[in-house]
Specification:
3 helices, Sortase, Chain: A, 14% helix
Length: 197
């Protein structure tokens, strides 16, 4: 009997969850998972532009997250729901890239996503990521970047400070919705530790 009640509670929670943060049933535009672009675009120096790949798509592996393994991450705007549906996550246009000296490489994805697409449950277990964990990114030229998590926090959807770079540092930010109500954003930040060509 307890198992049946538990299954009913889980089913009700999933039905509620499908109405927010990553479901085709979402109706309100303010439920967007990704924030607006940062107030100031993170500019690349001439040298960084010369070393940048022509294709800004990144591939990301997060060992602490079951479904993020060599996942392609396109560079696009925050309201690009097609990209959010068809990829595990997106790199927020206007934020930094791994090849920059000072950057905030901002990657966001849906917690639930869309069934039968690469986004489905992609960021579901983002809460497994902890300080000290590694995140691996590869650019289109085959350069590998290793980041180490230094901070996990919850913010409001309007807290755009998490999209900004930190002076003198190259960081990567992962972001998705909080559970169970999807009202806040779970943010993981990691700092670049190593680059290999």
């Amino acid at each position: 009997m307890r198992i049946r009640k538990l299954l009913l509670v889980i089913a009700a929670a999933m039905a509620f969850a499908l109405t927010a943060c990553g479901s085709e049933e979402r109706q309100t535009p303010d439920d967007a998972v990704v924030p607006d672009a940062p107030e100031k675009t993170q500019q690349q120096s001439a040298e960084e532009q010369a070393n940048a790949p022509e294709d800004p798509t990144l591939n990301m592996t997060v060992p602490s997250m079951e479904r993020i393994s060599d996942s392609p991450i396109p560079d696009t705007f925050g309201e690009d729901e097609e990209a959010l549906k068809n990829f595990a996550g997106i790199h927020l246009e206007g934020t930094g890239f791994p090849w920059q000296k000072e950057a905030n490489v901002y990657i966001a994805g849906h917690r639930l996503g869309y069934p039968n697409t690469p986004s489905f449950l992609a960021f579901w277990d983002i809460d497994n990521v902890a300080e000290g964990d590694d995140i691996f990114v590869t650019d289109a030229n085959g350069r590998d970047y290793t980041y180490e998590v230094f901070q996990v926090l919850e913010v409001d959807p309007t807290d755009l400070f998490v999209t900004e770079p930190l002076e003198g540092r190259n960081i990567l930010t992962l972001q998705s919705c909080t559970l169970p109500d999807y009202e806040r954003r779970l943010v993981v930040q990691a700092e670049l530790q190593d680059t290999r060509a």
